[in-house]
Amino acid sequence: MPRFSPDGLVLPVPPKSKTRERILQASLELFNAQGERSVTTNHLAAHLEMSPGNLYYYFRNKQMIIAELFARYEQEVDGFLKLPEGRSVTIEDKTRYFEALLSVMWNYRFLHRDLEHMLSSDQELAERYRLFARRHLHSAQYIYQGFVDAGILKMTTLQVEALATNAWIVMTSWMQFLCTVTTEADGAPDKDMLKRGIGQLLALEEGFVTESARSAFNDIRQRLR
User: Fold this and answer.
1) Where do the domains of the chain lie?
2) pLDDT in tens, 187-205
3) Where are the alpha helices (DSSP H) in 108-212?
């Protein structure tokens, strides 16, 4: 059906891919700002100034939007949570990992804040997340072992496994933790509050840093403070 401007002119139909992208970007903004549970497809349609029926043409329900946003989040994490190719890790790689982690956690913070609710509401997403978590727990172990092999950290195999697991728990739970300890007077958790989660990771690692890497490690703590 053609669309008309207030003066009766036929408006061009936007490409499907462009409208779909608008929906995804608006959803991400509203989910992050208000929480996924507070945003309905009617809210999204009103925000985008389109009819609910037009929204359903691109996404049949909110779960499909969440699934697409999770796929993008997963792709970003896949892109950086791995060992560098063709060389050993360096202390500067630690900064790169933390900055990339902070960025993706902030950009998709609703996933961490509302994760339990979303997984309980969507079995397919829950299975995808389980596979994602298992894969990247192994990735974290490989990366920490890489820092051990490079002489930056000193740990046993069991300590590597424990540190990787604890790091995963801290980072995936940090946004939810902030929401439980902040009040309205504190305001909504911001990126600086999220950065404190990185500080917790550094605190977990501190006891395993070798003397040769201690100075550079302290520099990283100062930069990310």
Assistant:
1) 7-58, 66-223
2) 778 888 888 888 899 999 9
3) 109-113, 115-121, 123-149, 157-181, 191-206
